[in-house]
Amino acid sequence: MRTDAIIWITLTRAIAPSTRKSWLPIALATIPGLLLTGASNYARTGSALNSGYEIDFGTPILTGLYGFLFSAGKSVFLFSPLMLLYPAAVRKLWSDSARRRLVVWSLILFGAQLLVYSKWWDWSGDDAWGPRFLVTATVVCLAVVAASEYVHSRWFALLAVAGLIVQVPPLLIGPHNSLMAVHLRNPAKVDPNTHLRPPITLDDIRFNPQYSQITATFEMLLFKASDGRLEASSSFIRSFDPPLRPKEIPIAFSGLIRI
Q: For 174, left (φ over 0), alpha (ψ -120 to 50), or beta?
């Protein structure tokens, strides 16, 4: 439960077809969420109105927008490849009056979440697998893709397979293992200009393809599967000192079974 969910609920209420009679069940349906949010806030901070999060919209908006859309470590199109079909699906469905409201909802929700969270001080929502602040909007955008004719296309099948491939490594070794390894082991990269070894930072994970969650998680899985023989081919694995060992990487099937 998140306090900012009230924004997305309000947008949904404004766009969804409804009557005056539907206001009461909509209002009643928000009460459990408000109570749980208040109880959670009180447990953490002693105040039902204080979440404990710093309210700071200090990130340059272009940084957040680039991060969400194009960065190597947090792009919504990398973590959900089917999102690449979303613009074309919007164009196709706009002329369909029966589905136009769904399209409008997706556009407003995606645009609002993108703009709000691009300014947030922790725009990437770390530690997390992918751009977690855009999960709600992504689900709605993918509903638009599913409602379009592209669902029967070759592109849909190819991108769905690509999305599956992206998600397999985090399911096998855990979505946060590469991040936790950076936090706990402080691996270093080699500066090409000074040849110094500064530590890998959160910005490297967000923006540098060599250290993004996707590539790092793939490399950790391959390193584990090869029993360490692929260490030389991975700049991420080579960055650890002392060296990372295959036995330190657990196999975690959806977090339920760990080997």
A: left
